Structures are given as C-alpha cells and as structure tokens.
Amino acid sequence: MSKRVILNFLKWGALIVFVVLFLFPFFWIVSSSLKARGEFFTRPPVWFPAHVDWSNYPDSLRRGALKGLTDSFIIAFSSMVISLSLGAPAAYAIARFQVGRENLPFWILSIRMFPPIATILPLFVIFRFVGLVDSYAGLVLSYTVFNLPFAIWILKGFIEDLPREIEEAAKVDGAKPFQIFRMIVIPLAAPGLVVAALFTFIFAWNDFAYAVIFSGSKVTPLPVVIAQFAGGHEILWGQISAAAIVAIAPALFIAIFLQKYLTRGLTMGAVK
Amino acid sequence: MLGTEEKRFARLMVTPAVGLLFLVTIAPLLFSLGVSFTNLQFGSPQPMRWSGLDNYVNLITRDTRFLSALWRTIELVVAGVLTQTVLGYVIASLLFRIRRGRTILLSAILIPSVISQVVAGWQGRMIFNASYGPLNDILARCGVKGPAWLASQQTALPTIFLTDTWQWTPFLALIILAALQSMPQDIVEAARLDGASGWSMFRFVTVPLILPVAAIGILLRGVDLFKTFDLVYILTQGGPGNSSETLTYFTYVQGFKFFNPSYASAMSFIQLILVTIAAKMFLSFVRRQRSF
Amino acid sequence: MVDPDELPTPPRMNKLFYHLTALLGAGALTLSSAFGELPKFNNVTVTVVGDAGQNMESLNKYADDFTKAGITIKQVGATFTGLYDKLKTDFVAGSGDYDMVIFYPSYIGDFAGNGYLEPLDDLMKKTPASVWNPKLDEVEPPYREVYCKWGGKVYALPYDGDVLELYYRKDFFEDPAEKAAFKQKYNRDLVPPATWKDWLQVAEFFTRKQGETLAGKKLERPYYGTAEYGARGFSYGWFLSRFASSGGIYFDENMDPMINTPAAVEALQNMVDSLKFCPPDVLSYGYEELKNAFLNGDVAMVVQWSDVGKKTADPQLSKVVGKVGFALVPGTEVNGSVQHRTPMPVGRVLAVPATSKNKEAAYWVAKYLSLDESPITVAANWSGQDPYRVSHFTDASHYKFSDDASRKDYLAATEANLKNGFPDLNIPGAAQYIDALDLAVNKALSGEADPKTALDGAAEDWKGITERLGADNQKKFWKEALSSYRSAGLLQ
C-alpha cells in the first residue's frame, strides 16, 4: 500500500472519530426526545427507545417551545443584522484607518470580558425605567453588548489579513472609500462575515443569562422555555430533548446555508 | 498618509457601533463601579455606606472562597485554551485537506457549537450520570469502570472542562479553517519550492499566516472561558463542595442568591482587570510572532 | 276582561308571596354555595408568577372557573432555581408587574419583612365566608405558623405541603428470611428505623455485594441500604433530618449559630456514616437521582419528598409498585422517648405583592387554589402539589394507588410527618445562611473536611452573614421567627 493511501486512510479515520465524538451527544438527545417517560434513568440505559414516541415534540411545542422558537428567531436575527451592519464598517475603519489606535478596539473587546452577571441588575433597572423589559428591543439591545464586539473583532482580523494591494489599486483608480469598502473589502472578507453572522446569531439564539431576567410573558426566548421544563420535582427529560432538537434545527440550517460563502471570497482574490 | 476626507469617513464608519456600545454599557458599568465602593445589600434595611476599597481588599486578602474560585477558573482557561486550540487546529487541517464532503462533515462537527450551553448542560447531566448514563455504560462494556464524573470532587471540574471542550472546539476549528483557506497561495508555493515541509512549513509559514485570524478566535475563547457559568449552573452548582465553583458562578451566587451587588461588582472588576492583563499579554505575544 | 295584574292582591296572598320569595331566595343561595361560590369580578387580569411547569398547571386546569369569576390569568414562569432572583429583582425595582406570586416559604421573612407583600388578614375576613375564608385553621400548625405568617399577620396561603418522608421496601422488610437474619444479627425485630442509630444498622444490613442473596434472589448488582441527597443545593435538608429531631434549631435567643453544637456534629457524622451504605456516585444525587434510585429498586429505603409516594404507585415510573411502605422519618432519642422532626424543604405558598393593582382578585385566585380545588390538586399526578390540610388526609378517594393499604399508609405517614414538621429557615438572608450550611454539609460528605470543622466553618460564616445584614435587624427577625416556632409547638 502506498504511503498516500495509508495517509488518506488515517485522515478519514481521524475525521470519522471526531465526527462520532462530537455527534454522539447529539444522537443521545435525539434518542431521548423519542423516549417515553419511564425510559430515562434506567439500568442499563435505553439506547433505542422501545417505541418511537413522537409526542414529546408537539407536547414541548404546546408548552411554549413554539413561541420560544419564534421569539428567539426574531431576537437572534435582529441581533445578527445589527451586529453585522454596524460592526463591518467599524471593523474596516479600525483595521485600515487606525481609528482610536489601539485603545478603541481593546475597549470594545473588554466589554465582552465583563461577566454579564454584574451588569444585569443595573441594566434591569434602566430597562424598567424606559419600559424595555419583556420586549424584543430590550433583549436585542442587551445582546449587542457581546455580539457587536465579537463581530468587530472577527471582521477586524479578517480584514487585516487581506492584501492591501487590491485596495490601493482601486484607490489609485479613483474609487471612493465607501466604494472600496462595499465592492472590494466586503466580498473579500466574506469568510469573516460568515463566521460573524453565524455566531452572533448563535450567541443571541442560545443566551440564557440575559433572557431569563429580561423575558416575561410577552417575550419568551427558547432557552428560558427549555429551562422551565426542569421543574423542582419533575424534570421533563423528553420535552427538554425535543425542544433542544427544535432549538438546534434553525441554527444548523443557517450554518449549512452560510458555509458556501466561506470559500467564495478567496477566488476573487485574483481579480485586479 | 490618510487624508482628512478619509479620516472623516473612518470616524463616520465607527460612530454608530461605538455609540451604541457606549450607550448600552456605560451606565451599567458606572453603576457597577460605584456600587463596588459601597456596602450595598438589597433586602437589608441598613443604609448604604461608602466603603472605599474595602470590598476589594477583603476579596484579595481574606476571601478564600474567592481566591480558590479564581484559581480554579485560571486552570480551566489554560487547559481549555490549549486543548481547544490544538484539537481545533487538527480538525481544521484535516478538513482543509479534503475536497469532497467537507460541507457535510463541517456541518456535522459544528453541531455542538450551535447548541445552547443550557442544553449541553442538561444532556451532560444525563450522559455523565455515573449509574444510569450512556458514557459509563459504554465504558463498562469495554471493561472499564467509569469514574463518578460529576459526583466526585476530583472529576467535577474536569467534566465541565470536557463538556466545554466538546462544545467549543468546533467553533475554533471553523475559524482556523477559514484562516487556512485565506492563506495566500503564492507564499505557500514559494515556501514549498524553497524546500519547506512538515514542521518548518508549519512553524514558519502556516502559523504566521493564520495567526492574525486564529488568534482572535483563541482570544475570544479565552475570554469566554473566564466567564464559564452556564455549565456550572446546570451541571454541578459548584459542587461537590466547592470543587467546581468558577469565578463567575461565585459572582452569581453573591449577586443573585445573596443580593450583595456591592461585593459582586467588586469581584467583577477584579475579574475584568485580570482578563485585561492576560489579553494584553496575549495580544503582544501574537504581534511579536507576526513580524517575520 | 280584567287584567290580572291590575287586581289588587289580597293581604293573605301578599304574605304567602313574600314567604315564597324568601324561601326561593334562600334556596337559591344555598344551592349556589353548594356549587362552590364564585365571586364576580369585572374582567380583571391577574398576573401570576411561579416556577413553571407542573407547579402552575392548576392555573390551566381551573381556567374555566376563573373565567366564570370574571378573571383572566396571565402566567409568567420562572425556573425552579431562578424563582428567587426573578421575584426579588421585581420587588427591589418596585415594578408592580405581578399580582399573585407563588414562592418557597423560606423567603417569607425576606419578602414580608421587607414590606413586599400585602397582609391578607382583612381580605380573609370578607364576606361571604365561603368565597373569602381560606380555612387556615385546618392547616397543620408548623406549616401555618411558620410558612404563612410573619410578625403575627398572615401573608401567604398554603399551596404545596412539601415534607420529607421515609420510603422503604415493604416486601423486603416483611420477608421471613430477612427478618430472621436481622433478628439473629442485631437481636431486635426488622422494622423501618425509628431512630437515626437504627437507620445505620438497617442500612448496613441491606447493603450487599453482587452475588449475595436478597429476599431469596441472587443479586446481579451490588445492592445498597439507602441513598442520600448528596448534591449541592439541598444536601442540608438531609442533615436537618437528623439535627432537628435531636432538638436542634438554627440560632439561639441571641442569634448565636447553633449548627455546630455537639448534637449537630453528631447529626452530620451520622449522615457521613450513612454514605458507606449508599451507591458510589451518591454525591451527585439530586431529586431525580435520589427518586430513581428507589423507584428502580436499587436501594432498600430512602428519605425523600412526600410526592415521591404518589410516584411509587405509577407503573410508568416505578418498578416497585405495591412494594412500598411509608413511615415517619427517623427521630432521635431525647430524655427517654423518641422525638421526631421532619424537615419541610421547599414547599410553596401564594401571596399578593403590595404593589399589585388587583389585590382582591389576586387574593381570591390564591384562596381558590389553596382551598377549593386543593383536594384534587394535591392528589393529582399532573400537579406537583402535596397535601397540607386535614381535609386532604380524610378524603382518600382522589389518590391513585394500586391498593387501598398503600394509599392509607401513604396518607397516614404524610400526615404524621407534617404534624412533626420542621421548617426551613425563613428570615431575611435565609438563602445565604442555607447556602453556607449546605456547603459545609457537602464538604463533610465529600471528605474535604470532617463534620466538626465543616460546621464550625459554617457557624463562622453565619456570624459574618448576620453582621453584614445588620445584626440588630436580624435579631429582631429571628425573634419573630422564634415566636412562630413556639406557636407551632416546635420548641419545648
């Protein structure tokens, strides 16, 4: 066997191992979502439920997961849009024009370093004052606290990595700064935009700390709904699992959808 | 040289983001800072008193629970960053080397990073359950007696470390993969023609080229690891005893169980200072690596 | 033709007419009260907040009655561990968003003492009594005096009578071979342990290795005598089970902590010793794991919440249906007789925030849940509520058990435990004191510290907490609590 075949085999072998490791808990969640009440905490553990019981899904949706889905989607999508549309220009300005030298970007990052626990209470008082508790706007606003710095830093990294020559050439050709930004930098930094878009959505979609304090009866994000399935004396494992799968689905679709933009930017690098 | 029009353009591009951030963070941060200099305690009828640096001094010199939580968190950050970076790189370079099926494999591997920490925590409770969980069942079938995972002081924090690594390595892998894909091929080709391969290729070509982007990912992971809270909240509540109590969890206990905002704020600012120092050190290290 | 209405009614007809109307009116009134009277509110919205899930399910089940009374219920769910945060945040910020709150009575000192709650005495006295009177006199004294009142006033109505209970495998305890073996080894009869000393003996007796026999069958896996609540959060409750029955109490009259007395150390030592007879991962056992250990048939006896009793009879969840005995949680011998004190951890009560804008309607919803439909609620499997009234125990028809004997035993044991109930600490700062105690208990369980050192540490913490909260105020609050302990008959 040639060296190449062995290497190929090892390569694929390692990848399969990783996939199995990372997907195993996911499989377990799917399996749990289809179990009946008595199939949890058994010995030996139930790997494949005796009868596939789909009822956990409509049951969890009925108990609030459906509203949780829509609420979370509205909030996460809005947060993603805001983070990208404000973050991309800011990242460009910082990366290429050294606005604020080193202090500004570091200050932006440091916002993310502060544990949210400490700011929740004062933020709650302020939000109450302006009537933003239990509102979509309130949660979207609080998510900018960590999403916007994240987007700015990711995009800053990708933009700094781009070869300057293309932009210089365009400038020499008489292009305005904004045109350069829109037509050259953005397409080239597409991988960065993908990562930023995906994860600002995910962070807002999955957040629990802010959601639990700022939600109420009008706005019920999905993580809070899921947490409510864990009552004091009865943990609804089946419904938690079903709701978790429901929670993963949109995020996964966005991840798959955005992936093809990961590689696109690079082929445009040769355009002069 | 930047012309005035360009400078104006740049400032305009930055203002909306900075303005929004300033608005949403400045008031709570100032409030937190101010409160950390008092002895404010919600629910206690006694009046609020200015106490200067008392909270800070107490935390650093007398509060052993705080110091051990801090130490535990540092361990978690160092172990987490190292492991996730190495694993992330391995996965990214494996994915980099294949053409077909990359999308499917990447999407599959990304699933943990897309799951909410709360969900990961709940599933962890089930999977790591020593008597009824699937993990020990598999180990038993292989003839190994599984450890008590969340039920033992020695393994509680490592279990949290494992869960976090499982969840966030794909995130780093994605970022590193994107960085690998952004490598200018002409430099890589030139190096290969010069005879670079294996370790020297990695050390002198790949690393500097991916470092700007990869470093951001690593930095963000490190900062987030410092704030590990959700997993502790769901999996162990800091137990058994205190063995898995992280800094942010202890801050939560002070702030939200005991309603001691003054103490919690002081803890948060100490945390902020420490993370800032660590981040600055990391960034200057990266900057030095870049110059080649 | 003369119009009959124009004719004057003769005097005798008048009298008859009035009598008839009065009779009919009285009849109507009695009929309506027989159907459980519903007041008439004018389309009021009552916002209720509590821990979501089965503990708020009753609001859904009785929604029709609320609608008939002219009330719309809006539910806001908090998480089980996040309830305090949510309520406290709202109270501190003065929001006034909630009309009725469901919370764990351990917070009553904090909430009532700080003025967040509306005193209910006046509302309770309104007429007609069938609508407004919550019949608190039929609630067991420990629960009523300590969990519903503060400073002599009523602030909350009972909703969930959580109390611990001893569950054991009746079939093993009645097995002739086991009984003989026990008698031979310990020279007394095999019965559910009456004291904590007995507890260790019985637990040791039933702890067996794989391959040994139990009730005639060979064991495929190691078997354990018992399991304890080893996880962080409520492990203190299992320490209290031992501590309280020896006469222990949280503080003395001067608010010096009493949790590190020799009796306390002995109590904690008993719990640590019990671990020898528990499954090896017992330190991660929370409510779920502890319940499952018994329902799966892995342990011979367990102390758990009273609702587990209902679950033992559910064939979907339990592998030991019909094999379960129910008893008083073990006590301690004091001055020649055995004294029992059963902790009542968690529990739920209903209250009206002082800032509510719909106090009457909110109070009525609370009273309705606490009294009218409560016999069904506490027996049902869809609710998380447990009995707390005398009437809950006299009418056994709602409880679903496979056999009458089990049902009777369960109710008798639950009632006995409630009569001897020992309350959670309920003064302001309770969360802090309890956390410090729980940490100490957990450290002793994990072997990080020996019981004396751990409890001494907790006592030091408690002194510090009292200082930080303001010693004078805390002493005042504790004196209030002590007087309610006295009226509940908990102090000698």
Please provide a written account of the structure:
- The complex is a heterotrimer of chains A (272), B (292) and C (492).
- Chain A is 76% helix and 0% strand.
- Chain A has 272 residues and is an all-alpha fold.
- Chain A folds into two domains: 1-53, no CATH class; 56-270, MetI-like (MetI-like fold).
- Chain A starts with a helix and ends in a 5-residue tail after the last helix.
- In chain A, 55% of the residues are buried.
- Mean pLDDT of chain A is 82; it is low at 264-272.
- Chain B is mainly alpha-helical and 292 residues long.
- Chain B is built from twelve helices and no strands.
- Chain B has helices at 4-36, 54-61, 64-96, 102-114, 117-127, 134-141, 153-181, 185-193, 198-226, 230-235, 247-257, 261-290.
- In chain B, helix 3 runs parallel beside helix 7.
- Chain B is globular.
- Chain C has 492 residues and is an alpha/beta fold.
- Chain C has two domains: 44-160 and 347-417, Periplasmic binding protein-like II (D-Maltodextrin-Binding Protein, domain 2); 164-344 and 423-487, Periplasmic binding protein-like II (D-Maltodextrin-Binding Protein, domain 2, 3-Layer(aba) Sandwich).
- Chain C contains 22 helices and 17 strands.
- In chain C, the strands form six sheets. Chain C has a five-stranded mixed β-sheet with strand order 2-1-3-16-6, with helices on both faces.
- In chain C, helix 12 packs across helix 13 (262-274).
- The longest helix of chain C has 24 residues, at 11-34.
- The radius of gyration of chain C is 26 Å and the shape is globular.
- Chain C starts with 10 loop residues before the first helix and ends in a 5-residue tail after the last helix.
- Residues 1-9 and 20-35 of chain C have low confidence and may be disordered.
- The chains are: A mainly alpha (272), B mainly alpha (292), C alpha/beta (492).
- The interface between A and B is large, with 105 and 98 residues.
